[in-house]
Amino acid sequence: MQNPRCHFLILLIQLVSIISFCQYIMPVSGEDETNAVKQVDIGIILDMETTVAKVMHTCILLALEDYHAANRSAIRIVPHFRDSKKDDVEAASAAIYLLKDVQVHAIFGPQMSTQTDFVIDIGNRVKVPIISPATSPSLSVKENPYFIRAALPSSSQTKAIAAIVKNYDWREVVIIYEDSPYGTGIVPYLTDALLETSTLVSYRSVISLSANDDQILRELHKMNTMQTRVFVVHLLPSLASRLFLMAKEAGMMRKGYAWIITDVLTSVLDSVDPSVIESSMQGVLGVKPYVPRSNELNNFTKRWRKRFRQEYPDMDTVELNVFGLWAYDSITALAKAVEKVGTTAIPKFKKPNTRENLTDLDALGTSEFGFLLIDYMQNITLKTGLSGDFHIIDGELQPSPYQIVNIIGKGERSVGFWIKKDGILYKLKMNGKTAKSNNKQLGTIIWPGGSTIFPRGWEIPTSGNKLKVGVPVKGGLEQYIKVEIDSKTQAVTATGFCADVFKEVIQSMPYAVPCEFIPFPIAHSPTSQDYDDLVYKILSQEYDAVVGDVTILASRSKYVDFTLPFTESGISAVVPVRDDERKNAWIFLKPLKSELWITTGAFFVFIGFVVWVLEHRVNKDFRGPKRKQVGMVFWFSFSTLVFAHKERVTSNLTRFVVIVWVFVVLVLTSSYTASLTSMLTVQQLQPTITDLNDLIKNGEYVGYQKGSFVEDILKRMKFESSKFRSYSTLEEYNDALLKGSKNGGVGAIVDELPYLRLFLNKYCKKYIMVGPTYKTAGFGFVFPKGSPMVPDVSRAVLKVMEGEFMNNIIQKWFGNETDCPEKNGMVITSDSLTLDSFKGLFLIAGVSSGSALVTFLLIFLHQNREILATDDSIWQKLSALAKIFDEEKDNSNAKSEKQEANESQRATHFSATAAYPDILPNLASQIPEIRTSDGLGASPEHEGFSTPEGFSTPEPGTPAHETITEANEER
């Protein structure tokens, strides 16, 4: 007999089953179409052989379960998984199957960039959204309207990597990437990002996907012989594991090396064999997208780990990564988009009208639902996504902060972050959408080799080669550089000022730099090599550096890099001194330059002419015979030179001109007196020439140092090449200057200031430096273009120059520059005054006199305008005006003054007659006729005037008048 409880339980189960079956078959039978479940098929294409695909597979299943559990809608999303088997054709075949046989309305995947490239083209043809986690930047969202990138492109991390490189002041890096579209896609973006921080990519190492360990090892050995010690690795985990194992074997995971891995490896570091991490990846830096921690993520991680272990029990070490979280958020976003679009019936694929001659792709038709779905997917946001704020804008997933990690032990340790707005940060405080920084530096990093001191990024190659340093050998001026070769061992030794500075600089470097000197001969023959040839040896990679008296020039900097200069420099000339100028009979002409003498003389004549024009009609001193008038023009102006002019001027215009001119003459004479006094009283070392242009004018020969760039400078200064003579020693300089141009020598030596000062220190009593000085940058050490050693050497140069060592080495090679008491350290220029110093004075004098002359002419023409108004010819008018100008002007004021003088003379005469009546008859008998002058030097119509007694009265000041005066005084 059955148990009543069991019988009741069986009936209850049957009842529930019947109710559930009825609810299931009601929509299918069409009894309630409004409540029917709408099925939306989506395709999932993954490389199920990879760890990342398995992680994403589990996340996709959980995403759909969570969506269906949280949304009681009438839409059910059904995934259809296909395995692409790491093959592009398999991926394309899977896509065609899903579109043709299943008629999916969207496809998630594939993972690989090459596979995605095929599937995107199919999606564009069928109008089905392709949501792919492929990271290659070569896949363009803008060019493919149905492509949605559900992962950050690898190019978005390049600025974070560049920021790390800049943070440690590394100047060069090596990029290691795999030979695939995924690998090559990042290179141009990474190169540009590094260039923005003034970092060069010294080498690009391409690793083939089929490369064996020996090939990888050979490539690493090749990189190890280079100078750069900073490597950026962009490889997939399988190939990257082999690379680091070989790098450990090659000795490249020790102190002094820096390795940075990209996000594709950092994000799935758990998929790498732990033994590889512990043995070969210690101290490596990595970047990966930052995923903020949350309760939702912690709960999901537990669920995911449990589900993953059930499906893949043999992969216990695999952990959830950002690619799985992106897959979860992508499927969630797709489900939300389907829910918004699919409120009505889900349309099927639209087949082509004709079935003739159709390819498999044409037979697929187009999806009307995909056309609606892509509009929602291109711009969608999940504020509570597991990966953080999941934003898709214009089909592209927006970047999030990048986390910088340091691989230590079996795992990683966070050392900082990078965000586009603020750059490198130590910590992030997530407050909604903002991120605030506590510190702009990274945390403590354990570098390869266990060192906490960051690598310099550059070292001498470990191949055993030393730094090949070229040094010039020229047989002279050995104080700067001297090269000796041991006859037995052939060892090269470099000494001199430049060599000692370089040795001290190398010792001050923060790392050891072994060097060997290689001599470079610079001979006297015209076809021999010069300093430019020495510098270009670096361009041809024969030398690693050049040390010597090499001047920093713009033309050379196009091909090489210079350090900071360790000497000052410039180009000037040295000429012999001449005898004391005070013995020269013509020294009185020296204070003024010839052009100033000529200008002054011309103005004297011009001012005299202007005064004559203004005074000719009204002043009898400026009238008379032509010879007298010409003489007056020169006499009046030149007499102002010593302020000896006695002629009275009557015109206000003339007074104005004379006042200005007297001031100009005062300044000129004062300046002339001061300059002449200086020449006569001050003992100076006077050069034979004071300007290099004088050498060109006089056709003098010019000497310069053999192999120097000064030859090109002289050519640009318009010197003739036939006038050049080159020398190598200070003694040759001395001999050439003593001989002079006429005896096979030179008139001047043109060279750089360091050499000239050395020459003057030895021959200071015989020669002197003349100006001007043409500036140059000085001597510097030479390195290849873009060499990371340049900033280190430049800093060491500054350190050496600021210390006591520089003073000691100068004293060692050049002695005490104050040992020559008569040497004048200043560059000598001409003491003669030039026209430029008085241009303002002459301008004032010219404007004032010219203005007075123009004013006079205008007044004169206005007064005689009736002549200009006649119908006569121009010549007749000019003749009439000239005749009037030559006539004396009737000045009523002058006449009244004359009459007053005559009346005064008459009164004096009458007084004398009354006082001495007995004298005048006798005087009259002795001087029958006495005429009176009108005081103006010209005789009037009657030369005397008659008194009532009938005799003429003499003018005061005549001998007769003086006689009367004397007689009066005697009485």
UniProtKB/TrEMBL annotation:
Superkingdom, taxonomy of origin: Eukaryota
Membrane topology listed for this record: Multi-pass membrane protein
Disulfide bridge positions per record: C764-C820
Location of the protein in the cell: Membrane
UniProt xrefs under CDD domains: GluR_Plant, PBP1_GABAb_receptor_plant
Positions of the UniProt region annotated as Disordered: 930-971
Membrane-spanning parts: 7-26, 596-614, 656-674, 840-861
Domain Ionotropic glutamate receptor C-terminal: 466-816
MF (Gene Ontology): ligand-gated monoatomic ion channel activity; signaling receptor activity
Quaternary structure (record): May form heteromers.
Its job: Glutamate-gated receptor that probably acts as non-selective cation channel. Glutamate-gated receptor that probably acts as a non-selective cation channel. May be involved in light-signal transduction and calcium homeostasis via the regulation of calcium influx into cells.
PANTHER family linked to this entry: OS06G0188250 PROTEIN, OS09G0428600 PROTEIN
Protein name, entry field: Glutamate receptor
Gene name per UniProt: LOC107800505
